[in-house]
Amino acid sequence: MKWAIRSSPDYPVHPQILQPRIIPRSEHCISRKQISPNALRVLYRLHEAGFGAYLVGGAVRDLLIGGAPKDFDVATSATPDEVRHLFRNCRLIGRRFRLAHVVFGPEIIEVATFRASADDGSGDREIDNGVLVRDNVYGSIEDDAVRRDFTANALYYAIEDFSVRDFVGGYDDVMARRLRLIGDPEERYREDPVRMLRAVRLSAKLGFTISPEAAEPIPRMAGLLADASSARLFDESLKMFMSGHGVPSLRSLEANGLLPVMFPDAADALAADGSGQCRALMIEGLRNTDLRVTEDKPVTPAYLFAALLWPAYAQELARMLDEGADLAVAEQRAADRVTLRQTERIGIPRRFSVPMHEIWFLQSRFPLRQRKRVFRLRQHPRFKAAFDFLELRATVVPELMSECEWWRDTLELDDTSLSERLDKQAAPSAGRPRRRRRGGRRS
Ligand code: ATP
Ligand code: MG
Are 266 and 311 contacting, i.e. CB atoms less than 8 angstroms apart? Predict the structure, then answer.
């Protein structure tokens, strides 16, 4: 494999001769106070046992820009077995990447042995058709740096002298808020297409720009993501949409041409969205989720996928109703079709697709005001989620506002007060013939 480290003449091109730039403690802002005490414990123990021990990856990057890392990863010269012997609270995981997890109650410090980027022919590193499928060849810290994705993710904070070690120009890139791929972008994307998604996600999360060399191939190579594992794509999409950066992530997916391969139905809906309602609904749904994440409130992927796929579902449902299908049958079929198409790309587990369907199905129940139906809907386990979704729809479809208000007013009522309210509302229309409402066909 060639490692042409581009556009940074200060850095030599071959890993064997990479000289790190060392940024001493006095010249960077990372203080031990900002590092998880458990990560420090791991780093010190490894160092005292004579191994190289570094904080690496997202944590170093985030600390350099004043962010709060969500996890602290450690890279070391110790092999997984050596790590296991040093820590009682350690378990080894993973086949593709063999890693040590050092467990401190709810916090897990991931400890990875330096990995080599070159295939040594041992069979421990498998490249299948240009795609990296297994990577267990251990190597030097230089090797480990160049096999990472972006230069900003390849910085090492050394516990021995608190310096930051930079083998690939990552420090300047972090300072310039830039994501630059290590090596040849096309080759790196072919090796692991999920890196395209990571570029989009990290740029949205960090507000970094994707360097032109790294951005240019993405729309051309987007199709490769169709072959990536759908479970991995699901994990990436959760990171994208459930960690407070959903709105910029959707925009970045769209701008970089990845939306059609990740969410084909959502991309089609946006392409045909003359009124702008579909876009408004998706953005508003993501914004609500982002806000809840910032406020530390619970969020569920079911709501989010419900919003992204609602236009496709609504369209499919309308088509089936036009063809004369019964409402209940049409709802189920429309939901199944949309979900099936989506799970070909991103494996949405049933524990999220089932509640997503329920959120959709309950939408047609909100206009029904017969006492029995109102009470039944209110008791439905998914009522609150479905009501939140109705509120979301009402932000883009003003006609739904009064329905939304009616239901909002009932939220605080106990059963007796609700019953009285329904009595009062029924009274003025007494004697008038009852109109059959849309959706009333459902038994
Ligand atoms: P986040 O803040 O979202 O966790 P991160 O960069 O820490 O971002 P992780 O998935 O936690 O992302 O990965 C940790 C590190 O492992 C990265 O910083 C990068 O150095 C390396 N890495 C992760 N995924 C890849 C990949 N697909 N190819 C190469 N290196 C990767
Ligand atoms: Mg991380």
Answer: yes
